[in-house]
Amino acid sequence: MEGRVPLRLELDDDPVGFLHGAWWPQSRDLQPEAADLVDHFPAAVGRINRLLISRPDWDSPAADGRALRRIVARRGPIKVGSFPSDDTHLMILTMATGRRLRLVVVPSDLDDAEGARRMRAVAEHGMPAGTDADWDRWDDETPAH
């Protein structure tokens, strides 16, 4: 895609708490941003098979009132899941190996200085203050009864 900057992704081999890093997408449009993440994700880390999103981070997490079920990357379709009321600002990447990586999604509308500051803060300190993530729920996607 023209006019795009390189993937803004910070990964940590030694994660802080439950987090493996941060991702700063360029817009709130899930299809192109997730495709960019999948297409440019470091091959040494692995291949992304599925994305679990926090819907409030995106302007387009649903189509016709239904949750978006897949995005299309260069290598083909990628499954997408979400929790309807979640606003943890996390994206869970399920790798081809089954490993899960948890990324904080940094808001796309931040200026360069603030976005870079937040990326560093996540890498150094983990989840931002005030975030109350239900980690067990993120690891168990079975429907609630």
Beta strands, count: 9
- The total of helices stands at 3
Distance between the termini: 42 Å
Structural category is alpha+beta
Residue share in helices? 10-25%
Oligomer: single chain
Mean pLDDT: 82
Low-confidence stretches: 130-145
String of helices and strands: EEHEEEEEEEHH
Largest sheet: 7 strands, mixed
Q: Compute the gyration radius: what is it?
A: 14 Å
User: Looking at the structure, what is the overall shape?
Assistant: globular
Task: Give the gist of this structure.
With 145 residues, this protein is α+β, with helices and mostly antiparallel strands. The chain is 21% helix and 28% strand. The chain contains 3 helices and 9 strands; from the N terminus they run ββαβββββββαα.
